[in-house]
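Usage

Read records sequentially. Each one opens with the input sequence:
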Amino acid sequence: MEDPRRPALPWRRLQEMGERHRRCHHQQPAQVSMMRKPLFGALVLGLTAQFSVHAAEPKLYPTGPSEDSAFIRFVGALDAPIEVRAGKDGRIELAAHDSTTWQAVKAHSPLGATLVHGGQNQAVDVSVQPGEFVTVAALPDDKGGWTAGIGRESPTDFSAFKVSLGLMNMAEHCSNAAIKIAGKDVAIVEDVAPKGMKRRQVNPLSLSVDLYCGGQRSGDPVNLGGLRAGERWTLLVHPARDGARLIPILDRMP
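and closes with the structure output:
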């Protein structure tokens, strides 16, 4: 998959966003809920600023009011292209192992889409909550075919100085999914149940990871390359004929 990364945010903005994050982190429990919207705004601002040069995609759904921001994206985790159809005329072609940007949608509204690949259609209906990020993916199954999967996340943190690595488990038979530094017994994210999601912030560095299911390594190492401050990655676990595999997705705003 082509690397869609863009230069990091200017140093001054990174510093300002990092200072806001540290202030939020040290708030007393009674104040945490009051800080959720600024943190959410910083997350969206950070993702938008990093990838604003990315080519515009067709809008599949109406955009909701800012106070009810909710987001959806589509992922093609197959070895061949897929097509996403939504609304009256909305269509997006996705290359193999590619994803759309996050698209803002109306919270609580039913959203329908159809994933098309190899002459087969998969209809998906989903509703997104305020502040929620929903991933709809075309996934290989363990029988040589494919299916649709849905993953959900409600981000609660953002750091302009760290890299956020999330593990989204869409493989039903991958119990206690974990990612470790490739070739080492050093866990980065662990104990993610099927349909679950966990995230951790790490320092910017060059990183390769191994996927583990039920304590056993599954598949080959995945090289994430040189990770940059402020980036957010989602590592999607999908089923395969001989276990489970990882698809790395760089979270992007339009």
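Summary fields computed downstream for this record:
- The chain has two domains: 1-54+158-254, 56-154.
- The radius of gyration is 18 Å.
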